[in-house]
Predict the 3D structure of the following.
Amino acid sequence: MKNVELETIVSLCKRRGFIYQGSEVYGGLSGTWDYGPLGVSLKRNIINLWWKMFVDARQDMYGVDAAILMNSQVWKASGHVDTFTDPLVECSNCHGRFREDKIDTNKCPTCGKASPFGPARQFNMMFKTNVGPVDDESSISYLRPETAQGIFTNFKNVVDCFYPDMPFGIAQVGKAFRNEISPRDFIFRSREFEQMEIEYFVHPDKWEEAFENWRQLVWQWVEALGLPKESVHELEVPETDRAHYSKRTIDFEFDFPIGRDELLGLAYRTDFDLSNIQNSSGKNMEYRPKDDSPSYVPHVIEPSFGLERAVMAVLCSAYQEDEVNGEKRSYLKLPYHLAPVRVAVSPLLKNKPELIDKAREVYEMLKTEFGNVMWDDNGNIGKRYRRQDEIGTPYCVVVDFETIEGDTTDTVTVRHRDTTKQERVSISDLKNYLAK
Ligand code: ATP
């Protein structure tokens, strides 16, 4: 991975309106991030791409959107109340708290004291809350630490309403919350984040085939995000490091500026969740095949995609620096389908009403067609190009004197982000040209 510093990305994100510290006006809230106009657009483009690829383009997928708050039985049955923990150690000197498996425990990372830690205790990462006005055991609920349980608890609903053939999957995109001991590295480890998850239900004998198939599909996703393949690595997670529900897990790691770390996970969850729901709710979770062969509790392959980590990987790999006319420039070489702004429209000069009127007309036409189109008449044209380059806008359309005079009337300059090349395109062809 080329050596972009995380700080460069963080500062670009703040300066240009992608991502801000959560609750910044009050000094922030650790582990939370707010998305500005460009960040929202980038996130939405990633979610839409995911949904299109894994739900709309397939015949075996169903979408759900389950409530974030769930009956606390869900988290008891799933094992999260007992085992969704990280090992917490506390420094005897500065009382800093750390995740034991993420630090060198010979020395406190904050105050530097040698051998400052006693034995680790298990810290449960779920945010606990109470539902309703009574604050007692019976009202306890949790903000979901994964979206998956909202899928499992709706398995029977989807089967009963749609009676899908096996194998099939249920997909969900939504927020998840984890009270991470040390949120860090920008959006990489947040306390509130978004997951895009699929639970893919298979006959128990067919899990290996499905697992392999999803492994290939994950690589297609990596490609669709525009990430260089050589920056993504599969890690076969050893049994001792796997989540409590998993019999096989591959972490797909990415070479982030902070080092190689998990981008997304692919897990074989067996029938762990559906069987636990069956045992604990008393409701039958078996699938009855249409050919009258014996019923069974399906096994599950789970590709789990973290949205924030996808955003961070996309931004880090898109960031480029080069030189244009002897000047250093930085730009985001985002895949066109992910760029927050598809095209920016400008009048060449700000003080020429005839240019402004024509540019407004072009802007409105493109805005109606594409939506994510920006009007930009701030500063001189060179500055506008730099600004649009920095946010990854693939095209700048400029209405200049040639647009309104001479034999090039009704053509505009289209300037390309990656090459900085310019060409003239007639206004009547512009929508087609930019739709490519
Ligand atoms: P890690 O080992 O980094 O804590 P994990 O193995 O616990 O992650 P999973 O439970 O497999 O993560 O969650 C699935 C995906 O959700 C991860 O691959 C990641 O993309 C995302 N994710 C998990 N925790 C966070 C977090 N705190 N902030 C942002 N994304 C997260």
Remarks:
- The CA atoms of residues 10 and 186 lie 7 Å apart.
- The longest strand covers residues 259-270.
